[in-house]
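Sequence in, structure out. Go.
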Amino acid sequence: MLLKFAFRNVLRNKKRSFLSALAIFFGAMVVAISLGWAEGMWKMLIDNMILYQSGNVRIITKEYRERERFFPVDEIVYNEKDLIEKIRKIEEVEMIDERIRFGLMLGKDEKTVFALGLGVNLEDNVFNLKTKIIEGQIDKNGIVVGKKLAQKLNVKLGEELLLATKTSEGGLNGIKLPVTGVISTGLNMFDEKAFFIDTEQAKRLLKIKNGTTEIYVYTKNHEDSNSVQEKIKQFLPEGTVAVTYKEQLGGWINFIEIEKKIIYLVLAAIMFLASFVIINTMIKAIFERLREIGTLKAIGMTDRQIFINFTLEGAIIGFAGGITGSLAGVLFLIYLNKTGVDVSGVAETSDLLFNTIIRPPYSFSIFFYTAVTATVIPALASMIPARYANKYTPAEVLRKI
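Output:
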């Protein structure tokens, strides 16, 4: 009965109720779009970190993990081929990527720059180098350089670069390789500072025999990481460790979790600010209906029922604006997901692993959170003026008219 009564009161001043619902509509739409965008950014960062930096599970030596920032090429996982074959037999494993990272001075004529070398299987790797080639081609006997790195060195296809670095034996070694390809990944970290050579060339340069420095294991689902780690541990060589992405990216994951909580609070605050329109609407309604409130109290309606009535009015307005605003926000997210948002300007200048195109996700959870927030917060906000209606007795209300 109170719900029906509150609904009728909302319709008594359609224009005012519509404007209040419109404020909630835009607030809910902003919340839904912001939430989808934020979740898209978080997912993209974690997925890219797993893809390029950690794998779902990474196999290295214990000492390598402690000295990782220095790219210790003397910390070797031996008999890598046998180990990789055993890992391939694990059902949850989708891909395995052998990788050798090393820092060196890359030189052409008198010009040298510090660069990050990556020894990978040039034909089959998580970087999908074949699809990133903008000049030349993939060649196991050559070097593939990032677009900006090639510009720094002013190097052209066919020209040789000198690779000089410390070997796994502690000495120095250098080889010359021709530039066979230039890539554009859209990620500044690789385009400006990295080059790729075949794993066999990397082992020749670094004098690594019968081993590698890192093995990246990618699972079919991120949730399988722990179970795959446990299975790998059963046949790991002594001195090596299998580390999940959560163990490697713990700081980043914790940061994102904290950021999520902050974002949720900020979005809730946006809805509360939008709800000030409802507070204003309820205050006006109370002053306009003082005689009615006094009459209702005189015929037996309790303070609690009057309080609930005005709270329900705010909730109805919030529900109407919140549901439609949430739906509009999700529909806009669907559009952005299909068309994508070009952020290449940011991706090409930041060392964070941003994709050039971001596709915000859309889901029922985004709609549900936004709709509930847009209904509950206006209802809570309407309690502020609703308390005012309970302050007076019927006689006091009638004297104020």
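Check: Residues 73-212 form one domain. The two ends are 27 Å apart (CA to CA).
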